[in-house]
Amino acid sequence: MPDPKLQIEMLHDRVMIKVENGDGERRSSAGIVIPATAQVARRLVWGEVAGVGQNVRTVKFGDRVLLAPDDQYEVEVQGSAYLVMRERDLHAVASERTEHGTGLYL
Questions:
Q1: What's the pTM value of the predicted model, to 2 decimals?
Q2: Which of 49, 57, 75, 86 has the greatest count of CB atoms below 10 A from its CB?
Q3: Residue 106: is its pLDDT beyond 60?
Q4: Torsions phi, psi of 88, nearest 5?
Q5: Residues 9/3, Cβ–Cβ less than 8 Å
Q6: What CATH code would you report for 14-94?
Q7: In this structure, are residues 20 and 94 in contact, taking their beta carbons and an 8 Å threshold?
Q8: pLDDT tens track for 16-70
């Protein structure tokens, strides 16, 4: 039986991410329903940071990040799936912090 008080500390520049469920149908901005079976070329997905290592500088716990889920390490912790990757493999951070950014809003 797994220990319910399991504490995970990420090392170095590693980030643990809970990927948002994007396996189902999607709807385009024009309202067109795109079925789950439709394949698109290498799609980036959004996820939420669930853990950071001591050398991570840009993201923090709870940030929403953009990443490529292909070729990443997946781990299951207490029934939930997470991705473990290096901070440099993240493409963008969406947060309410305004000290840096492009001026784009989600």
A1: 0.67
A2: 49
A3: no
A4: -65, -15
A5: no
A6: 2.30.33.40
A7: no
A8: 888 876 555 666 677 777 666 666 666 788 899 988 899 888 888 889 999 887 7
Rounded alpha-carbon distances, angstroms, from residue 11 to 18, 37, 54, 59, 73: 17, 37, 6, 14, 14
- Please state, in angstroms and rounded to a whole number, the distance separating the CA atoms of residues 106 and 101: 12
Domain layout of the chain by residue ranges: 14-94
Residue pLDDT, tens place only, 80-91: 888 899 999 898
Strand 92-94 relative to strand 64-67, pairing: antiparallel
CA distance 23 to 45: 10
Question: Of 57, 59, 58, 62, which Cα lies nearest the Cα of 18?
Answer: 62
Dihedral angle, C-alpha 25, 59, 74, 26, nearest 10 °:
0
